[in-house]
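fwd from M.: "can u put these together and see what the complex looks like"

so here's what she sent:
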Amino acid sequence: MKAFESKKRHNEIKEKVIKLFLIAAASVSILTTFGVLFSILFEAIEFFQMRSFWYFITGTEWSPGVANSKFGALPIFSGTFIITFIAMSVALPIGLGSAIFMSEYATPSTRNKLKPLLEILAGIPTVVYGFFAAITVAPAIVNFFSLLGIHASFNSALASGIVMGIMIIPIISSLSDDVIQAVPDSQRKASLALGMTMSETISHIVIPSALPGIISATLLGLSKALGETMIVVMAAGLRPNLSWNILEDMTTVTVRIVDSLVGDHEFNSPDTLSAFALGLILFFVTLLLNIVSLALIRKFKEKYKINTL
Amino acid sequence: MNNIIEPTSEKHQSSQVVNDNPFYDPTLIKRHNKAKRFKFFTIASIVFAICFLVFFLGDMVVKGLPAFQQTYVQIDVTYNKKTIVSTRKAIDKKYRRIVSRAWLRNIPKLVEASPELINTTRKTWVLANHQIDQYMKGHYYKIKDKQLKLIQQMEQQATIKLKFNSLFFTHGDSKTPENSGMLSATIGSILTLIVTMLTAFPLGVMTAVYLEEFAEDNRWTQLIEVNINNLAAIPSILFGLLGLAVFINLLGMPRSSPLVGGLTLALMTLPIIIVSSRAALRSVPDSIRQAGYGLGLTKIQVVQDHVLPLAFPGIMTGSIIGMAQAMGETAPLIIIGMIAFIPDSPSSIFEAATVMPAQIFTWAGMPERAYIERTAAGIMILLSVLISLNTLAIILRKKLEVKW
């Protein structure tokens, strides 16, 4: 009996120790988030002690590395916005269209063949997309527009935007596909029984029901596009350019972060620290998109009582 | 569904009957056409995505295949004391502009490896330089007329030919395109992934076990859950900033090393492993746990001996997919300096190294035309590794998955 008791106590202690280890492991993910936030925040604060925050947000001249360097990030934000906009106008219709086809029209066997193909698209590293954008797409765009007599840059926002859009297609299509499939079949049947065509059922019944999920997928794609680095580093320009012309070269937040951290700058110079200021903005914008996206998908799940998404 | 579409075709044949039909809707044709257009749009979008994939893979193969062959010329090479010192003199003057300088620089090592070569002159297949190579492959080239004539002459004598490019697999990076290969980047990738897996796998599985089996549903648990979802969506480049600020500047780990790269990638892979491990643990039915408790096992024993082994296939699948993703990641590694020029393979995780996608990025930025095919060939290798990893994950899931 005594031996049994001591074994039991031994087990209890062991259990407590293991549980502590597990809690420690789980805390690592929290530490990582705060690690990312604080490592950016401290350097960014240092930057804003040297340069004005207001000019950073609204200034139009970005000239690091010179004697009287200026850090107005507006042209960088506009470039990021335009390239992201191009990417989303490619990715949203195609991604949503593919998702609707796969969940509503395709037979299960077609669907099983198409899904892995889209997964391959999702698994291609972004550096590969970047190479493709720079070597194949950008020259094709220049050639096409020179036929029309329009000059296009080899680092045009259009080339990186299109390729980035293709990169985002699988993100939007796979999440939208899941959400559309989760809409109860009874809704479709009711609509079809009332004499609606298939497309009317989809656009008036299924899509509105799945809308929170689709918006969530879109926001997720948007945050991926904003944070995408390799495609724009390889195919977009370095020059901050405040322009609406998508055939000109433009730069993005991520390109400037890479550019200011690669090379032999002194770490505590405003040139290097500006990367962290840009990173801070990127962090908060993507975090916001993400939180909204998660909240929407949770709302959708609660509405249809699904646990699998 | 098909029954609804059929009446349109009937309507044309017997409009009389349809018009008598009290349910006849004059807008029906329009609506059905609209339905067809909508269906066509969805088909078009998926076809576009697939066509892009095919075009893209085809483009890479067409661009990359030439890199698996390399031009060699058969010329006399003299090995003696003088030519070991100034290797340019080992070959006839007229060949100096068509032979790779990197090959010539290797002569002392050749002699050291086989001493019987000394004081002999032998006909040897020598690596040609990249301009000659591009000419032989029919690409754009920049060669002077004199050399061009010489090559055309050699072509007739069959002393110049394309051979399988084994250098690409046995050499590291080089400033001369014809001499550069993927070896050091591959070793770097392997070392980095080892660090990533050794860190992310235990942490991820432990977190998943805690959240699924032990955690009570309280604020702390919810915070961890929300946090994991957010972590998955933080742009990868920001992890690079974390690596730079914490691992390199704060903890003083060696810059450009697989250690820092691996740890940074581990933090990025963590959410993928946690999410898939949780799903795998959740799919183990509760009856297993209850049977264990019924026999008097402790919670730890149940989890360790019964739940975890049953969930293992799912955990492995998720980990392999996470590993494939880490392997293709470039942006954070650029920030922590893993794009350095690395000709020799790193031998430990503390040395400067580069990884496969970073090597692709470096080559893509090179001005010489010959690097383009090497970049595409590197992409072919990287993609085949990634696709086989993903296929492995899918096979593993299908083979080992237990249906409850």
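replying to her w this: The radius of gyration of chain A is 25 Å.
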